Amino acid sequence: MSEAKGIVIRSTGSWYDVQLDDRVVPSKIRGKFRLRDEGVTNPIAVGDYVAIRLNEDETGLITEIFPRKNRLSRRAAGRKVGMEHVIVANIDMAFVMQAVNLPKPNSGFIDRFLVMAEYFDLEAGIILNKVDLIEEDDIEPLEDLIDRYEEIGYPVIQISAKTGVGTDELMRLMDQNVNVLTGPSGVGKSTLLNHIDPELSIPTQQVSIKTKKGRHTTTNASLHTIGPGTFVVDTPGIREFGIVEIEPEDLAYYFPEFRPYFDECRFPNCTHDHEPDCAVRDAVEEDQIHPMRFRNYLNILDSLKMGNKDVGR
Question: What is the CA angle 144-146-150, rounded to 5?
Answer without folding.
Answer: 120
